[in-house]
Structure formats: structure tokens, C-alpha cells
């Protein structure tokens, strides 16, 4: 018996409507009738044009650029559903903004990821479904259930099909020490060895490679990260792997393609042959690159939504 809501309804904000529509297509459900707009002074408003009383509501909204507008839209939508007597409200946040502000890096810093967690809970969210949090401990910032899906299985399927027969000549590389656990699991699933790029950050959005841990000489390498923002770290690591390590080809993949500032130009000018992203953040409108490819996260998110609605275990998606 499903006790939390009489039916399943999916709604979307403005940040990534295409992904929401793809999820609905996977689930064979219509996207909920909701208008999310802005008044002339910038305030956002939400109007729900169908009943949600007692329903199990899933609100899909990546908190990507414009980050604060996307976050505020999500909070207002959650509040609207709560006041409309929804049975349960799940915030589906494919890309969780502010996740990099998860600790105090220096005195008097805020911990903004915790603040966002508090805001979502206060607005009325009953649970959160997200993908590849920058730091897994952010799940502990919430006092409600959080399901943090991993995008790596989608990349595993892609690279197995492409390089599975040549695993001995291909290596997975972690772009920094903090991503070692993620890269190790990825390499094990692909049956490949692993290397690490050791770097330091003299200032935000800037990094310098100090050494490469592992032998990538004559190897094809796959850089794995959770997100690419300005692409400085990724492109710097790729350059070091070729010039210092002697790698023959560099591929890269990351769940979230933030791609702010000079990211696109850096990727185009880099030694990276191909970059894979998930569609947790929509691609830049009007910008096309032969190097950048997107895989759809919709099937995985749709499965997770279905499991949550039917009160089944979501853990099978982490394999």
C-alpha cells in the first residue's frame, strides 16, 4: 500500500525543462500544468493549474545558472505545493548548486550548502533526489531523506562499449586527490588501472599541477570528475598528462557541465579529444562544439522516481 500520496505527479521549473520532459516520457506521464514566471521587479511567482491534494509530487529543478533565480523558483514551488496539500513533496535537483561551499575553507566563511539544505526543508520538501553531490557529506546537512545518485554507471556503459576491448591500454585518471574514491570505483567497473593528478589551488577557479601519480606513458586516459566549471583544472590536468606523463589521447567525463566563463574556449583549445556530460544542466543555447557530447540522465532519474513512489529500494541504481 502506498500511504504517502494517491497518485504520482511531476512538475518542472524553468532551469531544465527539457530534462523534466524526458523524465516524463520515460515514465509515460504528462508534465504537470504549472506556470513559473517573474514579475517586472524580478520576483518569481508560481501558479499550479491542477489539483495536487494528496498527490506524491516530484518537482524537477536544477539549481544551475542563474543559480539564485533557479533556487528561489524551487523554494516557491515547494511552498506552493505544500500549501496546496500535496501528500508528499520530493525536490528532484539533478545539479545541486552551492554544493562546493560545504565547509569553512578560511575564517568567517559561510557554509552555504547547509543553508540551502535548511531552506529546502523549511519550504516544505519531504525528501531530496539529486545526482553526484560535490561532497557526499552534504547528505548529512539535511534532516530529511536524501538520495544521491551516481552518474558514473552511465559513463561506464559508454566507455565499455568504446574501449572495453582495449582496457589494457586505457587508464582512468582522477583530476585531483579529492576525486580518488570516485575514480577508483569507476576504474574497477571498467577493468582499468588508475592514475592521479596532484594539484594545488592558489586561489578559487585556479589550479596548478605539481605531479602525476601513476604511469600513463603511451596510454589513452579518461579523466573523471563530478563537474566542470571554468574547465581550467580539467584542461590543465589534460595538458600535464600529455606533456609530462606521455599520454597519447585524453578523454574526459563529468556529470555536471557548468561551463562558466572561458570554459568552452578552453575545452576547444585543449588537448582533450572528447568531453562527456550528463544533461543535468542544459547546454549553452546556440553554442555547439564537436568535442562536447551529452548523455541523458532521464532514464536513471525516472527509475529513481518510480522506485521512490512505489517505496522500493533505490540502491540498485548505485551498482
Automatic annotation (TrEMBL):
<feature type="binding site">
    <location>
        <position position="134"/>
    </location>
    <ligand>
        <name>Mg(2+)</name>
    </ligand>
</feature>
<comment type="function">
    <text>Involved in the biosynthesis of the central metabolite phospho-alpha-D-ribosyl-1-pyrophosphate (PRPP) via the transfer of pyrophosphoryl group from ATP to 1-hydroxyl of ribose-5-phosphate (Rib-5-P).</text>
</comment>
<dbReference type="InterPro" id="IPR000836">
    <property type="entry name" value="PRTase_dom"/>
</dbReference>
<comment type="subunit">
    <text>Homohexamer.</text>
</comment>
<dbReference type="InterPro" id="IPR000842">
    <property type="entry name" value="PRib_PP_synth_CS"/>
</dbReference>
<feature type="binding site">
    <location>
        <begin position="41"/>
        <end position="43"/>
    </location>
    <ligand>
        <name>ATP</name>
    </ligand>
</feature>
<feature type="binding site">
    <location>
        <position position="201"/>
    </location>
    <ligand>
        <name>D-ribose 5-phosphate</name>
    </ligand>
</feature>
<dbReference type="GO" id="GO:0004749">
    <property type="term" value="F:ribose phosphate diphosphokinase activity"/>
</dbReference>
<dbReference type="GO" id="GO:0006015">
    <property type="term" value="P:5-phosphoribose 1-diphosphate biosynthetic process"/>
</dbReference>
<dbReference type="InterPro" id="IPR037515">
    <property type="entry name" value="Rib-P_diPkinase_bac"/>
</dbReference>
<dbReference type="GO" id="GO:0002189">
    <property type="term" value="C:ribose phosphate diphosphokinase complex"/>
</dbReference>
<feature type="binding site">
    <location>
        <position position="225"/>
    </location>
    <ligand>
        <name>D-ribose 5-phosphate</name>
    </ligand>
</feature>
<keyword id="KW-0808">Transferase</keyword>
<feature type="active site">
    <location>
        <position position="199"/>
    </location>
</feature>
<keyword id="KW-0460">Magnesium</keyword>
<keyword id="KW-0545">Nucleotide biosynthesis</keyword>
<keyword id="KW-0963">Cytoplasm</keyword>
<dbReference type="InterPro" id="IPR029057">
    <property type="entry name" value="PRTase-like"/>
</dbReference>
<keyword id="KW-0418">Kinase</keyword>
<keyword id="KW-0547">Nucleotide-binding</keyword>
<dbReference type="GO" id="GO:0005737">
    <property type="term" value="C:cytoplasm"/>
</dbReference>
<feature type="domain" description="Ribose-phosphate pyrophosphokinase N-terminal">
    <location>
        <begin position="8"/>
        <end position="124"/>
    </location>
</feature>
<dbReference type="InterPro" id="IPR005946">
    <property type="entry name" value="Rib-P_diPkinase"/>
</dbReference>
<comment type="pathway">
    <text>Metabolic intermediate biosynthesis; 5-phospho-alpha-D-ribose 1-diphosphate biosynthesis; 5-phospho-alpha-D-ribose 1-diphosphate from D-ribose 5-phosphate (route I): step 1/1.</text>
</comment>
<dbReference type="GO" id="GO:0016301">
    <property type="term" value="F:kinase activity"/>
</dbReference>
<dbReference type="GO" id="GO:0005524">
    <property type="term" value="F:ATP binding"/>
</dbReference>
<keyword id="KW-0479">Metal-binding</keyword>
<comment type="similarity">
    <text>Belongs to the ribose-phosphate pyrophosphokinase family. Class I subfamily.</text>
</comment>
<dbReference type="GO" id="GO:0009156">
    <property type="term" value="P:ribonucleoside monophosphate biosynthetic process"/>
</dbReference>
<feature type="binding site">
    <location>
        <position position="176"/>
    </location>
    <ligand>
        <name>Mg(2+)</name>
    </ligand>
</feature>
<feature type="binding site">
    <location>
        <begin position="229"/>
        <end position="233"/>
    </location>
    <ligand>
        <name>D-ribose 5-phosphate</name>
    </ligand>
</feature>
<dbReference type="GO" id="GO:0000287">
    <property type="term" value="F:magnesium ion binding"/>
</dbReference>
<protein>
    <recommendedName>
        <fullName>Ribose-phosphate pyrophosphokinase</fullName>
        <ecNumber>2.7.6.1</ecNumber>
    </recommendedName>
</protein>
<dbReference type="GO" id="GO:0006164">
    <property type="term" value="P:purine nucleotide biosynthetic process"/>
</dbReference>
<feature type="binding site">
    <location>
        <begin position="100"/>
        <end position="101"/>
    </location>
    <ligand>
        <name>ATP</name>
    </ligand>
</feature>
<dbReference type="Pfam" id="PF14572">
    <property type="entry name" value="Pribosyl_synth"/>
</dbReference>
<keyword id="KW-0067">ATP-binding</keyword>
<dbReference type="Pfam" id="PF13793">
    <property type="entry name" value="Pribosyltran_N"/>
</dbReference>
<dbReference type="InterPro" id="IPR029099">
    <property type="entry name" value="Pribosyltran_N"/>
</dbReference>
